[in-house]
Amino acid sequence: MQRLRLPSTIVSAAGLGLMIAVTLALAAPPAAAQTKELSTAPEFVATYNSLADAILALHTGEENMVRSILAAAYEHADDHLNRAHQAIIAKNAADAKSLVEALAVDVGQLATEGDNSVGAVRKRLILGGAHHNAAGEAQGIFEEGYVIVTKAAKAKLLESSRAIAQMSSAPKAPELNAEWRKVQAVYTELTQPAK
Known about the structure:
Elements lengths: L7 H20 L14 H48 L3 H19 L4 H12 L6 H5 L12 H17 L5 H18 L5
Helix pairs in contact: 2-3, 2-7, 3-6, 6-7
């Protein structure tokens, strides 16, 4: 006589079913308490609250990360601008040109919330279904996956980036300063604390 062998997946499913049944039986209120309204066990609610805290903290963490990326790009831009001014004063055309080009790149990175490597992370989050500003995207305020920079701010910053890049062949301090003031205004608006 041969023994009947069940596949391990059936045995595992049966074991899982038994564990679920035991858990539900232990979690069920006594018969006398069944006349009262059923409610979720406080331990489950506490665990779910902890999970909600963690999810919301991730949202805030992403926002803080993007703010840090923007702050670093802004600092680099400010440094490149100051060094470009020094090169212009020193009549060092080659350095002025390369510093103004670097400034244009920095402003472009402000517009796009970082460089291509940050864009790859943003794309990964989008593909995973994480949209920081889903409501803002639906309203046309944000591009897909953007956290801080609105479509309007992006357009202004990209315009300034192009204008600065065009100045690189013969940069002049007054024109650079005028365009930089536009960048500063957009950056200041984007980094205002939420109301």
